[in-house]
Amino acid sequence: MAYDLEEQEQLASLKAWWNQYGNLTSWVLIAGLAAYSGWTGWNYYQRSQAAQASALYDELQHAVETKDAAKVLRAAGDMESRFGSTTYAPMGALLAAKSAFDANDLKSAKAQLQWASEHGDEEYKSVAKLRLAGVLLDEKAYDEALKVLASGIAPQFAGAVADRKGDVLAAQNKLAEARAAYQAALDATDKKNPGRQLIELKFEAIGGAVPAANDAA
Questions:
Q1: 182 and 203 in contact (C-beta within 8 Å)?
Q2: b/e string for 85-111 if b means 16 or more Cβ within 10 A?
Q3: Tell me, what's the pLDDT at 1?
Q4: Tens digit of pLDDT for each residue in 115-149?
Q5: For 22, 75, 96, 146, which has the most beta carbons within 10 A of its beta carbon?
Q6: Keywords in UniProt for this one (predicted)?
């Protein structure tokens, strides 16, 4: 006999189980293999995107160094459209914005900062908003600058936000409000921060009183 009685019973049980669950098991296995394949494919795609974005960022840096404004904006635009999900895209936008600002192309600087303020992680968005508010301040678009500073900036930038608000309010000659903003900036800025001295100078310039070191202690 090909099988003894016990083997025949085991085979019969296996067939019965397969008839009941075999199709489901096959689908589960196929789904698992597909998920694994998708996961490895996604990782490969992510690595490929990062590598290409890195190369394009190097081109952008070179264009900035050679002051090729057209190439800077072209590279930044390519990075945002093709690799917008990578870290390099908001980095590139911030770099392109500074290049445009240095070239007195405020329109392009604002466009790059606006893009960066809407993409990337919380830190990049916060930095972009602070810089965008600075450009708007230079353009005397005071209400718009304050609107940019009103939300969407990480808590760790509270001192920088208050400082920038003080600049905008001082430019509007709203000195009492500006003093309150600079005071808030000082309260949120560590005493060892090298930028604190500039805040104190601006605060005192509009009538604020910075406590002496021994008084503050």
A1: yes
A2: ebebbbbbbbbbbbbbbeeebeebbbb
A3: 45
A4: 999 998 999 999 999 999 999 999 999 999 999 99
A5: 96
A6: Cell membrane, Chaperone, Membrane, Transmembrane, Transmembrane helix
User: Which of 99, 103, 97, 146 minimizes the C-alpha distance to 117?
Assistant: 97
Q: Identify the residue whose tokens are 């075999």.
A: 22
Contact 169, 178 (CB under 8 A): yes
Judge whether 117 and 125 are in contact, CB under 8 Å: yes
Q: Is the pTM of this model over 0.85?
A: no
- Cβ neighbourhood burial of 171 (10 Å; 0-12, 13-18, 19+): middle
Cβ contacts of 155 within 8 Å, gap of 6 or more:
none
Mean pLDDT rounded to a whole number for the chain: 84
Could you count the other beta carbons within 10 Å of the beta carbon of residue 54?
13
Q: Please measure the distance between the N-terminal and C-terminal CA atoms of the chain and give it in whole angstroms.
A: 98
What is the rounded CA–CA span in Å between residue 108 and residue 114?
Answer: 10
